[in-house]
């Protein structure tokens, strides 16, 4: 099957679209990555999305409008990508834009992603897998990090390795030798606090390449205050989001503390590096494979390498998946698994006692015939490098 995966993460930058050709071959899933692209949200839409995040309040009519507009934007993106590349796909998997992930203590109770899939069906005629996280939460899981599904299959081998995604939130999957349980959880903020600070200090959505942070000095007193966050001490599995690390998070915790712009950005960069390294180091891995928008921040990557040394730190590109689109390929994989009635989580990775087939399927224009359920695969083989990122 040729599957289109569409993802918009907690950074809310826009849509990542990836198209892959997926095949089941015994206990292997083989994927030929075909092409991928990034499509920014229109700035007015992104501003409205950010404005509904906690601790803000909103209205049901605004939520309805955003659900429709995100669905329409996603539909246009998928249709345009397929038309521009001359490819006929079989299935679309759309994650939607997370606006709330409801966690009470250590238990996830619900999650909300916007982006009405009917618009994608109408624009493409293809069946669409959506609402991917909810079933895992209903089964007792965290609904996150679902990246653990791809990571566990992709990094399977004889040594313990970690996959790290640096989006708005950082998540990690630790994959050991055959028979070892997969460990996966959100470590805390990656880019979300940095982006809020950059918007306030620089007047733009991010500190490009960490250039301003590189001119600052890490303030140990500020770092100590931020590291007091109880979330970091919780045991895995655990998940978090902008509900905790919201737009007022840093200001609320630094009341009365004076810190200038470059020093604050440097300290927030170090916060991500410290919390990731502390989480990963105690899991005794030999390599960390990094993806997500944080890969473009050389100051953050340098801090991670320093904190994780002597553990090797590489990007996902070295293993065949582009760092900026890896999660879109993940969504495509999850859609493929759902179509084949294969559970979309690795046992124990999200905390659910019983893995479930994820999501709901909106039928396309053609009659829908699902294949017979298949056995869960044991390995993901990336057969060749992506052709291009447009």
Description:
The chain has helices at 43-51, 60-85, 118-124, 134-138, 147-154, 192-202, 211-215, 220-226, 249-253, 261-281, 298-308, 326-339, and strands at 2-8, 14-25, 28-40, 91-104, 107-114, 128-130, 161-166, 169-175, 183-189, 287-291, 312-315, 360-362, 379-382. It is of the alpha/beta class and 390 residues long. It has 2 domains: 2-149 and 322-382, ATPase, nucleotide binding domain (Nucleotidyltransferase, domain 5); 157-319, Nucleotidyltransferase, domain 5, CATH 3.30.420. The strands form 2 sheets. Strands 1, 2, 3, 4, 5, 6, 12 and 13 form an 8-stranded mixed β-sheet that branches. A 5-stranded mixed β-sheet has the order 9-8-7-10-11, sandwiched between helices.
Summarize, please.
With 390 residues, the chain is of the alpha/beta class. Helices cover 33% and strands 24% of the residues. The protein has 2 domains: 2-149 and 322-382, ATPase, nucleotide binding domain (Nucleotidyltransferase, domain 5), CATH 3.30.420; 157-319, ATPase, nucleotide binding domain (Nucleotidyltransferase, domain 5), CATH 3.30.420.
